[in-house]
Amino acid sequence: MNLLFIPQIINGDWSWLKALLTIIVVLYACVFVSALIDLFFGVRRARRLNIIRTSSGFRRTITKLTNYFGLLLMLSLADIAASVILRLPYFTVIGAIGIVLVEAKSVFENIKQQDKSMEEFQKLLQLVFENKEEIKSLITFLNSKSNEIERTAKQ
Asked: Pairing with 31, which of 14, 89, 133, 150 sits 20 to 30 Å away (CA)?
């Protein structure tokens, strides 16, 4: 059982090891950036909906990153074990792509929720405009009652 990267290290073939480490670093960085993008869009949606941002929400992001990097580390170890057969870190690549896709879905859900709240607001405005005569008569009625109360209070 001969690991493929061990002979390169012994022979001093550092270019292959540098390329492999570059791939791993890029994968980890992609996962980190995707989680930050999700955090950005989540905070943006909370601001628009006037939802209070608390430390527990930010802790969830840190917990999520810890879980993601733990998974990537396990997949990287599986790639080291599989380097007997495979030359590239396929498990880490598949795991990183899966995590990035999950985060992308989360971002699209945040955007969709924001669009949904805008649609609800538009429907409410449309309902107000459709019933503007009734609203106008209600305001007139309330004003007349208010004037009557003021007149009786002055007497």
From this structure: 14
Is residue 150 assigned to a domain?
A: no
Instruction: Measure the CA–CA gap between 59 and 109, rounded to whole angstroms.
Output: 20
152's tokens: 């009786």
Of 33, 24, 18, nearest to 100 by C-alpha is 33
Q: Which of 1, 5, 2 is nearest to 24 (CA)?
A: 5
- How many independent structural domains does the chain possess? 1
**From 3-17, 54-68, 76-90, the region with the lowest mean pLDDT:** 3-17
Domain with 112, as residue range(s), is 5-116
Q: Contact at 8 Å (CB) between 17 and 8?
A: yes
